């Protein structure tokens, strides 16, 4: 791959071993993907732990990383700075409400150390999966290196920014060097539709958009779906559910809704003159099938109603707080709402946090059910029966906790939390 | 044993590997679908549920979903449970990252491979020749 002077300097080790190793890895990755050069990036979104940076320096063969390895490398890490604006995906703990989520002080101190190291590296430890609507908002045409399967799809599709489906590693390495291999979604010729989704039913609420995404990911698999027959632009909330669910079932780098996506003023432009390789019809029956496939045992007691996958934005928190006004969550049922810490802080300032807490709901930040409890040491609450307004989260709860799951609209979920069951 | 069947393969990550096939037409990923420490697939309602992937040549349609997929490959490799190679029909960059950083050979072949291979068939991946060779066990 061709390297400019900046990159050659990094490869020669003049910017330290961390950046040098990051670039070596990106060259390996870029060569595998057929990239000929690098493109400078405006921002990155990644997942972060000190282990991830240390992993750069240690070949993986039969070698598990230890806290000792991190200590050995801490000075080196702390000397390094990311080259671009960088935000961080949710972590394994709520920094304020860690007790309620079953974490202990040991987990807390390791999480806080990671925050310190991230700050030294110049990253913003935002711990949210919706950076594109909070603290890291790219503009049309900007090259980026973003992980988080819902967020990278969102910025390609609704902002016209350019990122590949980056992994935690490739986004972190790109953040460190300020460049990313130039292939795939960075190139004009790849930014066009491959498959047509013919929507023949009403999308009556945000969850229907989630179901549509879940369907598109399943059918298209790996490609760029273009949606036809939708007679209104999605709201921000709808777009978040659509993108998150496409990449719960598929590997979708970009999607297009003609009229709503900046690179697709109309259907012809979306395909750039090509014919779709396949057409899939999404009608009432298909929509019903998605809800049914994510809903087991329609009646009975519920342990957990979980809202906030991806994280809820402020307008949703306002709506939830109003729905809970004067009501009480049933005993034996927990209502968890997950969001970014910046949004929770605003909810505290504006009084919505108190409204939710007074009703027995719990507003968590920095993570989600999956991240708090999958391969994480926190003691988890009872999750035998989980209800959610996110198709993605019900799917994850089924897979990771073997939960009995039920997928429903937000008002229905609130209703279930108050009744304590379905 | 009948004559081996050969498929043309496009190389993404170089390497030579030989091992028993573990095959599914499903799309899948390592994060959430695998237990890296045990080296098994553990997602309910998936075809490979319960199967060990250590030293296997994994054949599946493509990666999907989470951007943590490459991390999960790395965890499995560090736990000593690396697959021998991965063969995909369609290529997701997240799988490429995981294989490139952990030196797991990764190639792309035609979907016709699904009609020719069963679990346990011996697969040789040769990226110098750009070939995947299948020896049937039955």
Structural write-up:
- The complex is a heterodimer of chains A (422) and B (138).
- Chain A has 422 residues and is an alpha/beta fold.
- Helix content of chain A is 42%, strand content 14%.
- Chain A has helices at residues 5-11, 17-32, 50-55, 67-79, 105-120, 149-159, 168-177, 206-220, 236-249, 267-271, 284-293, 314-324, 341-350, 352-358, 369-373, 391-401, 410-419, and strands at residues 38-40, 43-46, 85-88, 144-146, 179-181, 195-199, 225-228, 278-282, 304-312, 334-339, 361-365, 385-388, 404-407.
- In chain A, strand 12 (385-388), helix 16 and strand 13 form a beta-alpha-beta unit.
- In chain A, helix 2 packs across helix 7, helix 8 (206-220) packs across helix 11 (284-293) and helix 12 (314-324) crosses helix 14.
- The longest helix of chain A is centred in the first third of the chain and has 16 residues, at 17-32.
- The N and C termini of chain A lie far apart (58 Å).
- With 138 residues, chain B is α/β, with parallel strands linked by helices.
- Chain B has a single domain (5-135), classed as Phosphohistidine domain (Glucose Oxidase, domain 1, 3-Layer(bba) Sandwich), CATH 3.50.30.10.
- In chain B, the strands form two sheets. An eight-stranded mixed sheet of chain B has the order 1-10-9-3-6-7-8-2. A two-stranded antiparallel ribbon of chain B has the order 4-5.
- In chain B, helix 1 (69-78) packs parallel to helix 2 (93-101).
- The model of chain B has no long low-confidence stretch (mean pLDDT 94).
- The A-B interface holds A 25, 28-29, 32-33, 47, 52, 55, 60-65, 147-149, 152, 164-171, 184, 217, 221-222, 247-251, 370, 374, 396, 398-400, 402 and B 12-13, 27, 32-33, 43-45, 61-71, 74, 77-80, 90-94, 96-102, 106.
In the CATH hierarchy, what is the class of chain B?
Alpha Beta
* Number of β-strand runs of chain A: 13
Span between N and C termini of chain B?
Answer: 7 Å
Q: How does the major sheet of chain B shape up?
A: 8 strands, mixed
What number is the mean pLDDT of chain A? 94
Helix/strand order of chain B, N-terminal first: EEEEEEHEHEHEE
Percent helix among the residues of chain A?
A: 40-55%
Spatial order of the strands forming the largest sheet of chain A: 11-10-9-12-13
**Beta-strand percentage range of chain B:** 25-35%
Shape of chain B: globular
CATH architecture of chain B: 3-Layer(bba) Sandwich
How big is the Rg of chain B? 14 Å
Report the order of strands and helices of chain A.
Answer: HHEEHHEHEHHEEHEHHEHEHEHHEHEHEH
Individual helix count of chain B: 3
Shape of chain A: globular
Q: Provide the domain count of chain B.
A: 1
Any low-confidence stretches of chain B, pLDDT <50, length ≥5?
none
Strand content of chain A: 5-15%
